[in-house]
């Protein structure tokens, strides 16, 4: 069936107009001018960490502006291509136009999803923690499968990741792991993954080949910014150091470089052992602790608001997705009912459709 190009292009223009309307283009241009001024300062690299933040943000804002502003030109070019293809009866050009139409639809959908990320911390980078839950060795293996899934997703997006801590299980898999996804809006995007994930499969660890159900939990936090002012008095934190270890308890470091921080007022515990020195591990662990305290403060504020509204703010994240490998293959989100049969693709990081559906679902719930 032939594509109705005029109707499709009209729909693209309508979507694009709505995206421009809700995107703060003027704010981005103002920020870009300010960042360019900061980047031109002769003493910028006197503070490498600040300089890196400025140049990284500058690169992002430039790319974001270009993505939005160039989209109109792509739609115009598509319209010209269609007119020429139809006038000359060129089948190859028609095929090219069909492919570009789908590509523009995908790009507009990405831009549209971005406009839905308007939460207080949505623009932040993300700290992801994965923990094995019920299910023994299968759960530990499942936790490692999830970690690989998210790292592969980040790799596909060319997002930088930094592994802070990995606690290996005795037989296989991991007890827990924490890593950072260093990309704008990583928190807003990945926060819909928070909750309990469930795996059903024939256990590779069961010598009777029985079907097993196992669980793993995913926690996603926003990375703390300098403007957050999370004050942690020194007396509120107990610092323990120990020797970092690899799979099966094997020692991977001959010095006590791993660090465990315990926040005494809240009981929050954070560990980091993936850096080479104790100082580096302590600094990384402190960043994670700050993120957890920031999230706790946000949850406390939300609980107060919900109490005032008289609402039940039950966790929407629990039991949020099922991965079934036996007796059939399917991954299904239990909140949005979105599902796919390509389980291998999902575990290899193809989760954008789940993320998009989750973001739209959350926005509808918010109202």
Provide structural commentary.
It contains 9 helices and 11 strands. With 367 residues, it is an alpha+beta fold. The protein has 2 domains: 5-115, Release factor (Methane Monooxygenase Hydroxylase, Chain G, domain 1, Up-down Bundle); 121-367, Alpha-Beta Plaits (2-Layer Sandwich). The strands form 2 sheets. It has an 8-stranded mixed beta sheet with strand order 2-3-1-5-4-9-10-11, with helices on both faces. Strand 9 (321-324) and strand 10 (330-333) form a beta hairpin. Helix 1 (5-22) runs parallel beside helix 4 and helix 3 packs antiparallel against helix 4. The longest helix has 41 residues, at 48-88. The chain is globular. The two termini are 38 Å apart.
Shape: globular
Beta strand count: 11
Order of helices and strands: HHHHEHEEHEEEEEHEEEHH
| CATH architecture descriptor text of the largest domain | 2-Layer Sandwich
User: Structural class given helices, strands, pairing?
Assistant: alpha+beta
Q: How many helical elements?
A: 9
Report the radius of gyration as a whole number of Å.
Answer: 24 Å
Q: Record the strand order, biggest sheet.
A: 2-3-1-5-4-9-10-11
Oligomer: single chain
Q: Helical residue percent?
A: 40-55%
Spans with pLDDT under 50 lasting ≥5 residues?
Answer: 309-317
Span between termini: 38 Å
How many domains is the backbone divided into? 2
């Amino acid at each position: 069936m032939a594509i109705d190009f005029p109707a499709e292009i009209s729909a693209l223009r309508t979507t694009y107009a709505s995206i421009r309307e809700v995107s703060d283009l003027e704010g981005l241009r103002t920020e870009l001018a300010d960042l360019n001024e900061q980047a031109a300062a002769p003493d910028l690299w006197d503070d490498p960490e600040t300089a890196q933040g400025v140049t990284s943000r500058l690169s992002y804002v430039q790319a974001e502006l270009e993505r939005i502003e160039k989209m109109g030109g792509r739609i115009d070019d598509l319209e010209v291509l269609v007119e020429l293809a139809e006038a000359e009866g060129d089948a190859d050009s028609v095929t090219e136009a069909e492919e570009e139409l789908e590509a523009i639809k995908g790009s507009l959908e990405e831009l549209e999803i971005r406009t839905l990320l308007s939460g207080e911390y949505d623009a932040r980078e993300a700290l992801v923690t994965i923990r094995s839950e019920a299910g023994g060795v299968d759960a530990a293996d499942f936790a490692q499968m999830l970690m690989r899934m998210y790292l592969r997703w980040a790799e596909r997006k060319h997002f930088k990741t930094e592994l802070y801590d990995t606690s290996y299980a005795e037989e296989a898999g991991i007890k827990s792991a924490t890593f950072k996804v260093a990309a704008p809006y990583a928190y807003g995007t990945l926060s819909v993954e928070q909750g309990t994930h469930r795996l059903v499969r024939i256990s590779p660890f069961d010598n009777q080949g029985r079907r097993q159900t196992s669980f793993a939990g995913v926690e996603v936090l926003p990375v703390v910014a300098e403007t957050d002012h999370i004050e942690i008095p020194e007396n509120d934190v107990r610092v323990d150091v120990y020797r970092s270890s690899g799979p099966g308890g094997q020692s991977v470091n001959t010095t006590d470089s791993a660090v465990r921080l315990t926040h005494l007022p809240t009981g929050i515990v954070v560990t980091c052992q993936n850096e080479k020195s104790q100082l580096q591990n302590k600094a990384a662990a402190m960043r994670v602790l700050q993120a957890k305290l920031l999230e706790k403060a946000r949850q406390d504020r939300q609980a107060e608001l919900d109490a005032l509204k008289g609402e039940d703010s039950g966790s929407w994240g629990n039991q949020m997705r099922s991965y079934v490998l036996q007796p059939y293959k399917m991954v299904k989100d239990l909140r949005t009912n979105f599902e796919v049969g390509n389980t291998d693709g999902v575990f290899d990081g193809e989760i954008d459709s789940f993320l998009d559906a989750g973001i739209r679902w959350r926005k509808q719930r918010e109202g």
